[in-house]
Amino acid sequence: TGAVIRVYEGHDGRVTACAWSPDGGFILSASDDQTLRLWERETGAVIRVYEGHDGRVTACAWSPDGRFLLSASSDNTLRLWERETGAVIRVYEGHTRGVTACAWSPDGRFLLSASDDRTLRLWERDTGAVIRVYWGHRSGVTACAWSPDGRFILSASGDQTARIWETESGRCVAVFHAMGGLRGCDWSHEGDQIALAGVSGVYLLRFRREALG
Length: 213
Prior knowledge:
- Helices cover 0% and strands 53% of the residues.
- The chain contains no helices and 19 strands.
- Strands 1-2-3-4 form a four-stranded antiparallel beta sheet, with no helix packed on it. Strands 5-6-7-8 form a four-stranded antiparallel beta sheet, with no helix packed on it. The chain has a four-stranded antiparallel beta sheet with strand order 9-10-11-12, with no helix packed on it.
- Strand 1 (15-20) and strand 2 form a beta hairpin.
């Protein structure tokens, strides 16, 4: 029906992102107030507030098993949090400008980040090591997503392009040119289509792995 079921209030700044827990029982939110908040879906109660970033929190994501949280910030870092205790497990440093987006690999072992420094970075979750840097965009990277099988990465940018990368090699295998900057991207659950959001509309594209050569 489109009816509003509940409004979750508590942040002291603009809410920039939100994400469902894998089991659907909780909602995670990120805000310009430099915090994340964990909400109980049914009651709207704030279960925990995660503090530590020195800039606005721009993105957030759950680990596949729901035990950990990942956040991105304009302070140029990502942070890995233990959901249950709120403890910061690791800070990922390397980007030279604000981090705009983040995502977990399907198996939960790696992290992906996008940044205003025009790059994406692939991180090993447990060590914080940078495995690979993806170069090619001519403007800030605004969004990123993994293919369901983890073999490819999708990125969107203000340079009016979306790019598909081979995760392991870092090779850019496809470029899509849009009419205007792009702000979001995602893969279908089946992995055969991608969706892009931009200033000129929403694009739906077919992805054929066999056509990449």
